[in-house]
Write a structure and sequence with these properties.
Largest sheet: 4 strands, mixed
Radius of gyration: 20 Å
Distance between the termini: 41 Å
Structural class: alpha+beta
Order of helices and strands: HEEEEHHEEHHHEEEHEEEEEH
Strand order of the largest sheet: 12-11-9-13
Helix content: 10-25%
Number of helices: 8
Number of strands: 14
Length: 354
Amino acid sequence: MRISFILISFIFFSCKKSDTELIVTYPKNTTIPKGMVWVPGNSFTMGASENDSYALPHEKPAHPVEVDGFFIDETEVTNAQFKKFVEATGYKTTAERAINWEEMKKMLPEGTPKPADSLLAPGSLVFFKDIKEINGLDNWQQWWKWVLGANWKQPNGPNSTIIGMDNYPVVHITYNDALAYCKWANRKLPTEAQWELAAKGSLKESIYTWGNDYSKLDKSANTWQGSFPIKNNQIDGYNLMSPVKSYYSNSLGIFDMAGNVWEYTLDWYNTDYYSELANSNKVTKNPKGAAVPNNPNNPNQKERVIKGGSFLCNANYCSSYRISARMGMTEDSSSDHIGFRTIVTLDMLKKTEK
């Protein structure tokens, strides 16, 4: 959205088993990385289930996959964790750097006019929490503002701060920023399949991280209650973002995989990818996502899949607190409702032990 704002059912078929054994458990002498939990390898149906009344076309068709076990952060990466990375490396996030128009226009329709220099200054998207009225829900620019100076340290722009917010998810992070953190921390972003397996936990066929009971939403996730985006009734206790671990974990001890902030995955966002897997008539093991990005609604931009929804999601707007929910986000986009969490595979642990 960084560039865009400036410019403005299950499918059942016979499947064959994969040829290699699935990694379900980790070796006995393995040291579990700090702040992470083990996600046992499993087979499951990825994508929207047939009893999900809020399922969208790009979450279908459902398809069988197998995913090896791995470790995942029990929470989204926090301000405190990201601060350690910045202090160790001197890294500057995308939102802190001036925008290069020559690079930007390569991803835009030919002939797009250059925006005012004032809009090419460092900044990020911030939710406009004081909006009083809107004209329908089709135009997201009604409740998002491009704020100069907004970044992970100043989430609402100049004069805002994260002091006292060490245990909140870090936001205003782009996909590229998340990769930089992963490189420093010897971690990876999860694939979309890994993310879904972790979110499901031991509940293989569930719509939500806690099961299929929608009535538990307000006590299970930080989402929007009331009339979006004008009035949040705060039934869940929070108006906007909440500290990590403010709600119960899922069955594996993983927190906030529904609501609070969206989370990046490694996968390209491609609206045809699920159909390709379903039409292959086989179980896909450890799917890596589409080979190329493809979003007919945003053809000039390359997008990655984000998962989990955020504090802005409600039934009338996006209902993206469902496990199968997904959205595309360009690699240089950031806002105050997008963060990330990381994973470690057994192969990665072996490399660090050598």
